[in-house]
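[job 4471] stage=fold_predict status=RUNNING
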Amino acid sequence: MEDLPEYYLYRRMLPSQFDKRQGQPKSILFQLRENEDGLSVFDSNVKSPREVLQLYIDNNNLALINGDETAQLAARKRLTEYPDVEAMVDKGWMIVKIPKSAVTDLGLILSEVDENGHVLILGGEKFNDIYPPLFINMLIRGVASLASREECLRI
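[job 4471] inference complete, writing structure tokens
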């Protein structure tokens, strides 16, 4: 019997979330902010690494049209620094590839996938106390990985 292909959850990583000295993401990448119910990721069945990065640009372009003056100013600044996916990758943006099976093996629950491929990893009130080190450990052990530059730029 042939093994089924592994599907991934993609987590977008800002340059400030990568520890160059350690050569790995900082645990803050996997921590929920106060207003979040789950860790925001994207399903590899719906989005490629490039498309996940492109969503950042698309959301800022929407803020230019629909946002208030403060949101428009912030979006303009971000788009000046990161006008396209190539610029994002050149300046250190990355994608972490986490096997779906590794997430569910931890007992975490995945929300429904929306039309953009967006999914939340749900882990309850103690998420930040328990799971960020486990995700870092996945990277250290090679269970999870960083998408290559070529993967991030592939159309």
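[job 4471] summary: Residues 49-66 form the longest helix (18 residues).
[job 4471] exit 0
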